[in-house]
Amino acid sequence: QNPAPQPGVPVPYPSFGFASDTDKGTGTVKIANKTVNIKNQSYLTKTSGTEAGCAAKKGVITSTNTGKEYFNSWSSDVKFDGEPVVRHTDLATNNHAS
Description:
The chain is mainly β. 0% of the residues lie in helices and 18% in strands. It starts with 21 loop residues before the first strand and ends with a strand.
């Protein structure tokens, strides 16, 4: 863990998730026998990368890290099971009160 920064100074850490942690992915279409993330349904059950943060400064709101990750963007023209597919570099938010 890193030492705590000055009060009020957030320290950014890269946060990332893995497709293997997908929950509520596609029902019928699979890639490499795995479900695919789709718009407004799928999420990643955990994320990584923020563990180095000081214990007292984990999540600004939740005081946790490695929480769920939800997607904010997706393909406009590729659909699986009738829903837009999430792509590798699409925006996402994480640590949702996990």
